[in-house]
Amino acid sequence: MHASAAPDSPAPLLEAQGVTLAFGGVRALSDVSFAVQPGSITAVIGPNGAGKTSLFNTISGFYRPTAGRIRFRGQDITRIPAPRRAKLGLARSFQNIALFRGMTVLDNIKLGRHAHLKTNVLDALLYLGRARREEAQLRRDVEERIIDFLEIDHIRHAPVSALSYGLQKRVEMARALAMQPEILMLDEPVAGMNREETEDMARFILDVRAEWGVTVLMVEHDMGMVMDLSDHVVVLNFGQVIARGTPGEVQADPEVARAYLGSGDVDALRRKLRAAGSARAEAA
């Protein structure tokens, strides 16, 4: 069932305005513009090499655009470094899992709150009052809210290296949620997952929007999941936006069919999506 769209907002929570990114003579992104509304699930899709991860890296502050602007809550954050963007409310996961494999699940998740801690070095070394209070609050939030929400209580003390790929992706999402984000940026959240793990992750994405009020921006190759969950879809090809709109509008766009199938046959694209949906249903 398609997720209901969030009410219209007078101002976007996040905007990319004419974003261009070049590496030498190669343009990874060219004049990319789109907006993310508060409370929405927005997906960025496109064929391999379309520029999706480059766009994510630019929004989160790992790359600085050659031209254009990134705005968050109306503020120009184009030149703000990644750690400060995280503190402002932008949290992300990664296409390739970026957890500390030798640490426990709980310790990995707690690291997500680092940007918000006010304890100074002396407090932390001596474990003084403020450090104690922050640690207690952090444990309550992580253990009673995030771990329970993502149903990972049974692995909280396990080392990340001992977990399945699907559980590691869930832990990475938990660490991002520990950052108390306004926008949760998920880079291919179900890549490499089996069908059951994919269904679980889809449920968590819907619930984090519905129950926590977190806006979601995701890059994903699973077109069936994108069309099921998203309120708004942005399609990239060769670093340019070729379509944007509701899932239905994007599916009906010949340019999208051409990007994915090599032709503008919209009916063929829809048949491909239906076939993918049927395969998911049978696997479930």
In short:
With 284 residues, the chain is of the alpha/beta class. The protein is built from eleven helices and ten strands.
Give the overall average pLDDT. 83
Distance between the termini: 16 Å
Largest sheet: 6 strands, mixed
Count of individual beta strands: 10
Number of helices: 11
CATH class category label of the largest domain: Alpha Beta
Q: How much beta, percentage-wise?
A: 15-25%
CATH topology of the largest domain: the name is: Rossmann fold
What string, H for helix and E for strand, traces the elements in order?
EEEHEEHEHHHHEHEHEEHHH
Low-confidence stretches: 1-7, 116-127
CATH superfamily label of the largest domain = P-loop containing nucleotide triphosphate hydrolases
Describe the structure.
It is a single chain. It is built from eleven helices and ten strands. The chain is of the alpha/beta class and 284 residues long. The protein folds into two domains: 10-89 and 181-284, P-loop containing nucleotide triphosphate hydrolases (Rossmann fold, 3-Layer(aba) Sandwich), CATH 3.40.50; 98-180, Rossmann fold, CATH 3.40.50.300. Strands 6-7-8-3-9-10 form a six-stranded mixed beta sheet, with helices on both faces. A hairpin with a 2-residue loop joins β9 and β10. The protein is globular. Mean pLDDT is 83; it is low at 1-7 and 116-127.
Layout of SSEs?
Elements: E1 14-23, E2 26-36, E3 41-45, H1 52-60, E4 67-72, E5 75-76, H2 82-88, E6 90-92, H3 105-111, H4 121-126, H5 129-149, H6 165-177, E7 183-187, H7 195-212, E8 215-219, H8 223-229, E9 232-237, E10 240-245, H9 247-251, H10 254-261, H11 266-283
Parallel strand pairs: 3-8, 3-9, 6-7, 7-8
Antiparallel strand pairs: 1-2, 1-4, 4-5, 9-10
